[in-house]
Amino acid sequence: MSWASRFRLLQYTKASLWIVPLIGLVLGVLLAEWAVSVDATEWLPAGWRYSASTAGGVLTAIVGAMIALLGFVVTIGVLVVQQATGTLSPRYMRLWYRDRLQKAVLATFTGTFSFSFALLRSIESDSVPDLGVTMAGSAVSVSLLLLLVYLNRFTHNLRPVAIAGLVGRMGEEVLVRGEAAVLGAAPRAGDPVPPAAGGPITYVRSERGGVIQAFHPERLTALAVRHDCLLVVTRLVGDYVPPGGVVVEVHGGSPAPAARRVTGLIAFGSERTIEQDPAFALRVLVDIAVRALSPAVNDPTTAVQVLNRIEAFLHTVGRTGLRNRYVLADRDGTPRLVVQGRDWEDYLQLAVTEIREYGTSSVQICRRLRALLEGLLSALPPGPLPAVRTELTLLREAVEREYPDPARRTRARTPDPQGIGARPRPGPGPGPD
């Protein structure tokens, strides 16, 4: 199995809602067998012993309760899907499927069900699994506690601002971790792109196509060293590649590596993931903000709250020192792998363009965007600032088109971190008028 196949299998496992509950189901049966075997030693105290009718009634009630609770959790899941697709972003669902607490709750319920059901068949008039009945009662207590924690978590975390915070933190972690690994192996900023390794250029094409979810830079570099060639990945993580599209250019090689070996280190899927694609997290944040600005929802305050997380994300991006291309070398310093990257302008345009286009009619959004951009001007190093000034100019022009009245235009151009939360006051830094 190639690395790409293992990656896709891991993604499926993380997003699956049935694998962990199935493990709980199997463990419940095995634990029931163990409890029955321990009961045969007759070492339990008298207070843990039950009559056959009592044990049967308790276990039957537990089996029915677990089925009802499973249905309740599934109902909550349906409601989450409806809210996510209606008021948030369908892209968020891929992250929600991975929630570990939800899988733990489902596994506990299925495990308690199978454990209690397996114990029922061992009850006889003169033989009762006393330890198992007590353990089943304890499992019910744990299940109810987890259910309360689950309800508390999703009651609070289903708010758009909470989801924005979760998605933003995930994106920042992936950005810092992934870019630090690539930057550590890349030449200094400003170094020229290495020339081709010589010889013919071979084009590696995707077989089935799809969205590039991730690739393995270390193994691609090792593969280039083995064949004495230079690999140039022509697509970004998150790009859609049609069937037969060029993914990698192989410069030189003696002989050139087989196409299947190269594509086996690049994972394709039906949609983007966040493992190596921090821009996907920013995409989800922008989608939530744009959905809040739609006429059907008309909730600019939610968009302002999401902009808070977008601003934090942009500050992290601005301090990272991203480039649009990275070169990885072998131990001798010979360039072996060239990968495409997103630079500061890519992230900035993704963060503010659509929100500006859809939210200019809201004074609240205009003021919050202005405060966001001026905050970037005052906090970031000189390199990213020209792109920020360009976005400020675009915002100014959009406000002028939307608000012909001078008084309303002046108010819309006043920076305010709360959207409309205070009278005009000096901002964190000057911007073009």
Task: Give a verbal description of the structure.
This protein has 433 residues and is α+β, with helices and mostly antiparallel strands. 60% of the residues lie in helices and 9% in strands. The chain is built from 15 helices and eight strands. Helix 2 runs antiparallel to helix 6 (130-157), helix 7 runs parallel beside helix 11 and helix 10 (278-293) packs antiparallel against helix 11 (300-320). The longest helix has 36 residues, at 52-87. The protein is flat, with a radius of gyration of 28 Å. The N and C termini lie far apart (59 Å). The mean pLDDT is 87.
Topology:
Blueprint lengths: L2 H13 L3 H21 L12 H36 L5 H4 L3 H21 L9 H28 L2 H26 L15 E5 L4 E6 L1 H11 L1 E5 L6 E2 L4 E7 L6 H5 L2 E4 L8 H16 L6 H21 L4 E5 L5 E6 L3 H16 L3 H17 L5 H18 L3 H7 L21
Parallel strand pairs: 3-8
Antiparallel strand pairs: 1-5, 2-4, 2-6, 3-5, 7-8
